[in-house]
Amino acid sequence: MIVRSWSERASIQTVVIREMICVWMRFNAKANKCIIILISVLILTGCDNKPDNMLSGYSHGEFVYLSYSGNEKIERILINKGDNVAAGQELVKIESFDAQNIFLRAEEKLSAESALLRNLESGERPEELDIIRSQIKKAQSAESQVKRQLGRYRNLYANHAISLAEWEDIRDELTQKAHRLKS
């Protein structure tokens, strides 16, 4: 029998005492003395004012559902159902093949980007600058050639050697070529 409170304990003891008194009264005087001693002991042990440590009701634990967005296979679960876990505690051991490959690819990409950054920070090399200078000279010479051709065709149109339509076509073509060279 589980006793839940002090008052319940006292009422049970009272019932037991009453029953014992009735049974023992039927016996001799010696038995009556034993009964009185037993009753006294029961009364004294039942009269405590300690708070009960027993509670009634329900207790609910906190459940947390975990998930992982990767597609690696779980090799081993390191905890059991109902275990208490701390923040940062390793819960499972996952397949390391994919994770290692992703990590190695990220390291390779980092080293390539670092090399590119060092290359860009070092500035232009003399050979590259020479190529750019020659491209500028070529564009300048092509621009002066377009201007000379435009002047010649202007003179031909002024002397009525070419028609207005031919002059406009040549002028538009050379103007577009000049704009392409400037950009």
UniProtKB/TrEMBL annotation:
Coiled coil: none
UniProt main location, coarse: other
Compartment(s) where it occurs, according to its Swiss-Prot or TrEMBL record: Cell envelope
Keywords, sorted A to Z: Coiled coil, Lipoprotein
Domain of life: Bacteria
InterPro entries for the chain: UPF0194_transport
Keyword Glycoprotein among UniProt keywords: no
GO CC entries: cell envelope
Name of the molecule in the record: Lipoprotein
High-level lineage: Bacteria, Pseudomonadati, Pseudomonadota, Gammaproteobacteria, Enterobacterales
